[in-house]
Amino acid sequence: MSTALDLITRVRGVRGAMLVSADDGIVIAEQLMEGIKGGAVAALAASLAGRLRRAMEAAGTGTSVFWHLQAEQGALLVVPDGNSSVAGGGGILVVAVAEPDVNIGLVRLELLRVAETVV
Question: How many CB atoms neighbour CB 101 within 10 A?
Answer without folding.
Answer: 10
